[in-house]
Amino acid sequence: MVEEAEAKGANAVVGMRLQSATLMSAAAEIIAYGTAVVIEAEG
Questions:
Q1: pLDDT of residue 32
Q2: How confident is the model at residue 43, as a pLDDT?
Q3: What is the model's pLDDT at position 41?
Q4: 3-state SS track over the chain
Q5: How many domains in the chain?
Q6: Are 8 and 35 in contact (CB under 8 A)?
Q7: CA distance 28 to 42
Q8: What per-residue string of b and e applies to 3-29 under the rule 16 or more CB within 10 Å gives b?
Q9: Which residues contact 32 (CB under 8 A, 6 or more apart)?
Q10: Is 13 among the domain residues?
Q11: Long-range contacts made by residues 5-12, C-beta under 8 angstroms, separation at least 24?
Q12: Which member of 11, 12, 24, 32 has the lowest number of beta carbons within 10 Å of its beta carbon?
């Protein structure tokens, strides 16, 4: 996720969320969500 955000010109990821679900007895999926942003110093 960080690499994708940096490739888009962002320097931070906010609002990150992880979600998981069991697909079968031996398989699961994990999904990560976040918003890439550019944070600048004030002033």
A1: 95
A2: 80
A3: 84
A4: CHHHHHHCCCCEEEEEEEEEEEEECCEEEEEEEEEEECCCCCC
A5: 1
A6: no
A7: 43
A8: eebeeeebeebeeeeeeeeeeeeeeee
A9: 1, 16, 17, 18, 19
A10: yes
A11: 5/34, 5/36, 8/36, 9/38, 10/36, 10/37, 10/38, 11/37, 11/38, 11/39, 12/36, 12/37, 12/38, 12/39
A12: 24
Instruction: Indicate whether 27 belongs to any domain.
Output: yes
**Assigned domain for 25 exists:** yes
1-43 per-position pLDDT tens digit: 999 999 999 999 999 999 999 999 889 999 999 999 999 988 8
Q: Is residue 12, in this structure, part of any structural domain at all?
A: yes
